[in-house]
């Protein structure tokens, strides 16, 4: 709690999603976070048409440099950031993926933990989903506590103590998952940012095969070498997977689908999302849609607004 209070000014800007001082562009945004000289700028220059100065001395990059990766018809904005130092993580909202870069030769594990700790302290949760706790502050009636699972880390007493710390005396709380006290606090505070993260170990040309193998097996990890252009294709594939993007193609009646201009949406998008992307008022004029692709049993299939789209589906919208 005290740490949160100390970090209050920087935390609120992070939570509001103002983000870095660059124009948001493209379909998704990836921030490159890492210690100085791990190769973030080298990576940006290699993958995008933007050149970001790289050098062997630390803190070469002093501002946020954006670049764009074109992949599978999507524009992915990549942000090259100054090397992180303790207490420097800020302005994180609005990003869809954290690409943490770590480098080979020196023991990487404590460095990974240090970066995670840094981001944790400003309210960013990596590769975690929002705790499954129902929480609703009330005007009166005290605290009602329930759980649908056996709790091993929290009890009714502890939950009450925590709520009182936050000056909440009336609320409804339902644990649907065996959460920790910290996770419960995240729910009360409510402004946490949940973000997928890929740990990228660069400069594998400088370490032994055994070490490369060990790093590659760690969860959420990809090993690369910008210097020798190793494993970059695989990194792009993983990036795509972690961003969970979906390409949808549109088709006009009696014409072939337009495969040159995909609509890029987050995974789990419905026909209604597609409509909104095409035109603000399209959903209200919607009659039905024909969909070809893996989301339907047969192609084409007549579907409604709530139908869930899948990657590379083709859609034809019929208006009233
Ligand atoms: N051996 C090797 N060197 C690399 C690799 N990638 C980058 N480097 C070198 O590492 C040094 C630092 O690279 P930068 O791209 O400046 O690193 P950065 O993370 O942007 O550093 P800051 O902006 O200072 O935080 C440069 O001398 C690069 O040439 C790699 O895969 N292998
Ligand atoms: K550098
Ligand atoms: Mg740099």
From TrEMBL:
PANTHER family, per the entry: DEVELOPMENTALLY-REGULATED GTP-BINDING PROTEIN 2
Species, as recorded: Anas zonorhyncha (Eastern spot-billed duck)
Listed CDD domains: DRG, TGS_DRG2
Stretches assigned to the TGS domain: 244-319
Domain of life where this protein originates: Eukaryota
DNA-binding as UniProt keyword: no
Ranges that cross the membrane: none
Keyword presence, Nucleotide-binding: yes
Protein name: Developmentally regulated GTP binding protein 2
Domain OBG-type G: 28-244
Gene Ontology molecular functions: GTP binding; GTPase activity
């Amino acid at each position: 709690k005290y740490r949160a209070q100390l970090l209050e000014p920087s935390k609120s800007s992070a939570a509001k999603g103002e983000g870095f001082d660059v124009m948001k562009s493209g379909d998704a945004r990836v921030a490159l976070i890492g210690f100085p000289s791990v190769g973030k700028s080298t990576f940006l220059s290699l993958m995008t048409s933007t050149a970001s100065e790289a050098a062997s001395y630390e803190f070469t990059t002093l501002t946020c440099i954006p670049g764009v990766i074109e992949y599978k018809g999507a524009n992915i904005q990549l942000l090259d950031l100054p090397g992180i130092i303790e207490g420097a993580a800020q302005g994180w909202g609005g990003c869809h993926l954290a690409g943490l870069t770590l480098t080979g030769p020196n023991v990487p594990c404590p460095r990974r933990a240090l970066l995670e700790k840094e981001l944790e302290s400003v309210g960013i949760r990596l590769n975690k989903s929002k705790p499954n706790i129902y929480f609703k502050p009330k005007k009166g009636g005290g605290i009602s506590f329930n759980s649908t699972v056996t709790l091993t880390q929290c009890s009714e007493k502890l939950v009450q103590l925590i709520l009182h710390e936050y000056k909440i005396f009336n609320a409804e709380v339902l644990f649907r998952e065996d959460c920790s006290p910290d996770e419960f606090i995240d729910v009360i505070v409510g402004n946490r940012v949940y973000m997928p993260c890929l740990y990228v170990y660069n400069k594998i040309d400088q370490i032994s095969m055994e070490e490369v193998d060990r790093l590659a097996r760690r969860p959420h990890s990809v090993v690369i070498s910008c210097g020798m252009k190793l494993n970059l294709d695989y990194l792009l594939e993983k990036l795509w997977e972690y961003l969970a993007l979906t390409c949808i193609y549109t088709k006009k009646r009696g014409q072939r689908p337009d495969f040159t201009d995909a609509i890029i949406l987050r995974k789990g998008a419905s026909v209604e999302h597609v409509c909104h992307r095409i035109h603000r008022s399209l959903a209200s004029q919607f009659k039905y849609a024909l969909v070809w692709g893996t989301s339907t049993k047969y192609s084409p299939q007549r579907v409604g607004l709530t139908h869930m789209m899948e990657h590379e589906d083709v859609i034809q919208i019929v208006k009233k």
